[in-house]
């Protein structure tokens, strides 16, 4: 039934409303004017009806106990209202959003308004580039705090739940390693951008406005990625004392327990439709009790008793008040079964993520069903290793990260000797999920649900009786289910304060493992792989679907003492590769360091020894290792600070230049500064960054020209010119950016 509200204003007022709505933005005092047939501008809650009834509640309560509608915040309240109204009725760079998006927009504005009150900024004129930097620093500080206490889920679960409609867990291009608050931060940064875009309209409306672009011509997506990538880098891998018990317990559930739970679940789902209400509350009649005999669980190896107590029907007798007669029904063990189903679900997720490093956003897109001829799951493929001695198992799923549209990709999920019956953990998890959730897929009328390996039920305490309650699983489901498994079945209460590597174990102990994030499994995977063979960093980058080793190195190696040796090796190899490309001319390079290297072309050529490709590069790498020559990689290029520390521009501008510095200054290093630095170079590893930078900068410049704001965008024009020059030197055609 369509919801309605009572129109409390006169017909004349309502008739004039459509005409006045746009003019409201520019009225000196619109307090008594209608914003809808149900609300006036001055009211703390605006009610609308646009297909459905919804409200905008301006009574936002801030951390200091004040409210946005309090007298002290009247300028900020008026600015916020006019900003929103300008988006609806005077949008300057994008189509007007529908009125029903108002609650989402207000939700996106909330962290910005809260931060303004916290930092005593009274209006939009006090916002700018430096203010945005402070806002982002506060966001990172909150992230760092959450990563060091038992509410780390604040950054992955609750933040994701507040995506406010801009992106969805199903359709966005980012995955969990980028989703530590990604949606909320992106929405907030977008608000900063839109306040700047709407400056001409807001200025005409007479409210204080920004004086310059707070994003400095960058997109909200680029700014958000920089922040979230940093948070990913500071997210630690799971300590051995935490990861190993969890992985071992998950593996145990994938054995005999999995077979029992699948049988129990099938038995319940077969009888469940016979009960009289959707929760099974009325139960079975006496004549039906033989349909569900008491379920006996199996005995695990090394044990003398079944791993779980038997489950059977429970007699429930109800006495009728009016005649005193009684009736007995027999309830299925629905709740107990659902607990076990969820436990097995969680164990499968943990095994899949920890042993294959597949992203949750990719895992939820794994396809269900089996191939007709082989009987293998659709989402699994097998190949022989190059030696022919091993079978390699791959997970197949659509990947969207880093791509314009989804493409199917493969993740190595295990191997076994040819002829062996061993099933790798991730493959076993897929097979279990296929069988476990088959009854749910059968009753679903939605073909998209039927085709998904990971599905879910809307309610968490029962089994689905009707197909409409079965839905596609979201990433948040994968996270919360594995956390539930860890809290219920993995004993972390006896963890010491510090690990053997001096890692902080207190958050894991106190939260019972609920502080664990999905990003940590990928970092743990990388750590174990590097420990096994220090030469595997490029292979890890391939498994993670990273564009280059630098991304893996910066985000997943971090400061782990056991991994730093490999990081150093990669820095030596990056330096050798750049020098090799420079002196051989096999690939184009850019940057002033290339000129310096060319001055020693003959000497470097002798080190290469006339050898081609791998051998010559290895010779040069060994030489770099002997002399401590490193290249510090970043998305935009490579820093050779060790060659001439005093020439490092990032240290010169910060006043920290010294022959003793060994690393670039991360606080001042940025692409425009690096581009003119004597110890900086760019090769094809960084082409994607400069292409994107050129497109973003040139687009911003052209848009500024359209609006007549060229004076304030000269820096952006210069940024586009520098990017274009880099691409020309790298012999990459400039992308076509139309006006």
What distance lies between the first and last C-alpha atoms, to the nearest angstrom?
A: 47 Å
Class per helix and strand makeup: mainly alpha
**Mind describing the biggest β-sheet?**
3 strands, antiparallel
Number of helices: 28
Radius of gyration: 30 Å
Q: What portion of the residues fall into strands of 2 or more residues? A: 5-15%
What is the strand arrangement across the widest sheet?
7-8-9
Helical percentage: 40-55%
Which segments are poorly predicted (pLDDT under 50) over 5 or more consecutive residues?
Answer: 1-6, 148-179, 546-559, 561-566
Shape: flat
Number of strands: 14
Mean pLDDT: 80
List keywords for this structure.
3-stranded antiparallel sheet, 739 residues, mainly alpha, flat, 28 helices
Fold and architecture overview:
The radius of gyration is 30 Å and the shape is flat. The chain has a 3-stranded antiparallel β-sheet. A 3-stranded antiparallel β-sheet has the order 12-13-14. Strands 1-2 form a two-stranded antiparallel ribbon. The N terminus is likely disordered. It is built from 28 helices and 14 strands. Helix content is 46%, strand content 9%. Helix 4 packs across helix 7. The chain is mainly alpha-helical. The protein starts with 10 loop residues before the first helix and ends in a 10-residue tail after the last helix.
């Amino acid at each position: 039934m369509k919801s309605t509200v009572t129109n409390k204003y006169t017909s004349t007022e309502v008739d004039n409303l459509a005409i006045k709505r746009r003019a409201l933005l520019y009225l000196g005092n619109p307090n008594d004017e209608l914003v809808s047939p149900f609300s006036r501008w001055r009211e703390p809650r605006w009610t609308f009806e646009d297909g459905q009834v919804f409200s905008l509640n301006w009574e936002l309560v801030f951390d200091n106990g004040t409210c946005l509608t309090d007298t002290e915040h009247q300028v900020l309240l008026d600015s916020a209202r006019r900003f929103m109204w300008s988006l609806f009725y005077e949008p300057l760079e994008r189509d007007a959003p529908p009125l029903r998006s108002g609650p989402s927009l207000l939700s996106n504005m909330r962290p910005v308004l809260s931060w303004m009150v916290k930092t005593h900024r009274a209006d939009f004129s006090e916002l700018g580039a430096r203010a945005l930097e402070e806002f982002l620093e506060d966001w990172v500080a909150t992230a760092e705090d959450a990563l060091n206490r038992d509410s780390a889920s604040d950054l992955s679960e609750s933040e994701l739940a507040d995506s406010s409609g801009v992106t969805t867990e199903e359709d966005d291009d980012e995955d969990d390693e980028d989703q530590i608050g990604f949606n909320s931060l992106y929405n907030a940064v977008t608000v900063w951008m839109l306040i700047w875009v709407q400056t001409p309209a807001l200025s005409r409306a007479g409210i204080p406005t920004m004086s310059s672009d707070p994003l400095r011509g960058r997109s909200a997506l680029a700014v958000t990625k920089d922040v979230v990538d940093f948070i990913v880098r500071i997210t630690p891998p799971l300590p051995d004392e935490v990861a190993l018990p969890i992985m071992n317990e998950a593996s145990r559930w994938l054995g005999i327990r999995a077979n029992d739970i699948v049988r129990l679940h099938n038995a319940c789902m077969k009888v469940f439709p016979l009960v009289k209400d959707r929760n099974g509350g009325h139960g079975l009649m006496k004549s039906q009790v033989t349909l569900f005999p008491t379920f006996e669980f199996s005995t695990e190896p090394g044990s003398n008793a079944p791993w779980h107590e038997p489950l059977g029907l429970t007699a429930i007798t109800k006495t009728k008040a009016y005649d005193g007669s009684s009736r007995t029904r027999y309830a299925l063990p629905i709740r107990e079964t659902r607990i076990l189903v969820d436990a097995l679900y969680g164990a499968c997720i943990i095994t899949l993520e920890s042993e294959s490093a597949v992203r949750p956003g990719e895992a939820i897109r794994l396809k269900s069903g089996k191939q007709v001829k082989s009987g293998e799951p659709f989402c699994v493929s097998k190949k022989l290793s190059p030696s022919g001695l091993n079978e390699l198992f791959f997970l197949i799923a659509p990947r969207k990260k880093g791509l314009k549209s989804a493409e199917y990709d493969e993740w190595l999920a295990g191997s076994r000797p040819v002829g062996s019956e061993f099933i790798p953990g991730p493959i076993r998890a897929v097979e279990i999920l296929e069988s476990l959730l088959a009854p749910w897929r059968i009753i679903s009328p939605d073909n998209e649900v039927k085709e998904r390996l990971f599905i879910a039920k809307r309610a968490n305490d029962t089994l689905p009786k009707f197909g409409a309650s079965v839905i596609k699983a979201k990433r948040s489901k994968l996270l919360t289910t594995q956390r539930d498994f860890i809290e219920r079945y993995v004993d972390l209460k006896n963890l010491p304060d510090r690990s053997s590597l001096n890692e902080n174990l207190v958050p894991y102990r106190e939260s019972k493992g609920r502080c664990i994030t999905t990003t940590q499994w990928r970092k743990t995977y990388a750590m174990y792989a590097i420990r096994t063979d220090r030469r595997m960093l490029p292979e890890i980058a391939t498994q993670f679907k990273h564009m280059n080793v630098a991304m893996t190195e910066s985000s997943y190696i971090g400061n782990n003492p056991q991994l730093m040796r490999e990081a150093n090796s990669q820095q030596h190899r990056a330096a050798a590769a750049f020098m090799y490309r420079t002196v051989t001319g096999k690939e184009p390079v850019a940057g002033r360091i290339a000129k310096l290297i060319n001055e020693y072309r003959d000497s470097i050529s002798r080190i290469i020894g006339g050898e081609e490709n791998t051998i010559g590069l290895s010779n040069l790498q060994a030489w770099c290792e002997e002399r401590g020559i490193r290249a510090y990689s970043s998305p935009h290029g490579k820093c050779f600070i060790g060659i001439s520390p005093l020439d490092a521009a990032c240290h010169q501008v910060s006043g920290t230049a010294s022959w003793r510095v060994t690393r670039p200054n991360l606080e001042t290093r940025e692409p425009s500064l690096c581009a003119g630095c004597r110890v900086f170079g760019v090769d094809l590893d960084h082409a994607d960054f400069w292409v994107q930078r050129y497109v973003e900068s040139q687009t911003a410049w052209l848009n500024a020209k359209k609006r007549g704001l060229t004076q304030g965008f000269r820096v952006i024009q210069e940024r586009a010119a520098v990017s274009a020059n880099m691409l020309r030197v790298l012999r990459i055609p400039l992308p076509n950016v139309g006006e």
